[in-house]
Structure formats: C-alpha cells, structure tokens
Design a protein that fits this description.
Helix content is 17%, strand content 42%. The chain contains two helices and nine strands; from the N terminus they run ααβββββββββ. The chain has an eight-stranded antiparallel β-barrel. Strand 4 and strand 5 form a beta hairpin. The N and C termini lie far apart (59 Å). This is Lipocalin-like domain-containing protein.
C-alpha cells in the first residue's frame, strides 16, 4: 500500500509539472498590435470627434484612418485629413507603461521631427487603445485618444 501511495504521488507530481510547462506563453505586445488598425472611437482632448457607424461625425475623415503595423518594423499612418506617412515602429515596454513609437516618418508630420509617440492603454488582437503623448498641431494641440479595431 505504501508503495502504491508513493507511485501515485510521483505520477501526480510529474503530471502537474508536465501540465504547467505546456501552458502557452503570452504573445509579445508587438505581435498583438502588429496588424492593420482602423478608427472605432477618436477623441481630440475630451471631445469625441469620430465614432464608427455614427450617422454624423464632427471629423468624418477618420473613416479612412489607418495605422498599418503589419510589418515587423515598417509603419504606415493614414491620417484623417488624407495625408499618409511611412516610417518605422517599435514598442518600448517598461514597468511604468508601454509606448508605441512611430519614427523616421516621411514626410514629417508637422511639429514632430518625424516621430510620434503613443501611450498604449490596452491592446488585444481586435482592439487597440492608445493616447498620443504630445499635442497634435493638426487638432489644435489636443492630446488625442484612439480606440482602434482590427477586423
């Protein structure tokens, strides 16, 4: 009986180790956001300027907004005013929070020196929420919040 109990405990321990080692590791943030995003809800400061599917929007150009992060390093940003910028992207992950950096953008968006940074508020494979870290000259210097979706 003692031998049976010992074998049973060993099987239980080995089984637990095998099961726990088979758990999926979480995807890196860069892999989660590495896709094409479109506008769901956009705020300039505290004012909602675009809601996908709304009958009217103060800034209807966001219908064509696209943030393409589908390449591991290349980014394309199509703004609400129709301007398109290309460059590179990277994610900086820190204990203080995560940041998306669009850099070496050409042409350079006004007042950016070719770099725009966003605080990543949340990210799943279908929804990406971020806040621009500096005011946008295009929107009167407001800090803009973007809720983006990927089909």
């Amino acid at each position: 009986m003692k031998r049976f109990f010992t074998v049973f405990v060993m099987i239980a321990v080995v089984g637990t180790v095998v099961v726990s080692s088979c758990k999926k590791k979480p995807k890196p943030l860069s892999e989660i956001i590495g896709r094409v995003w479109s506008a769901q809800l956009i705020k300039h400061g505290s004012s909602v300027v675009y809601t996908k599917g709304a009958a009217t929007n103060p800034t209807p150009g966001y219908l064509n907004f696209r943030l393409d992060l589908s390449s591991p390093t290349s980014a394309t940003l199509k703004e609400w005013d129709g301007n398109t910028f290309t460059g590179q992207w990277e994610v900086q992950e820190t204990t203080a929070g995560n940041t998306l950096i669009l850099k070496n953008l050409t042409p350079q968006p006004t007042g950016t020196n070719g770099t725009i940074q966003f605080t990543i508020n949340s990210a799943t494979e279908t929804e990406f929420v971020m806040t621009r870290t500096s005011g946008s000259q295009k929107t009167g210097g407001t800090i803009n919040n973007y809720t983006l979706v990927s089909p």
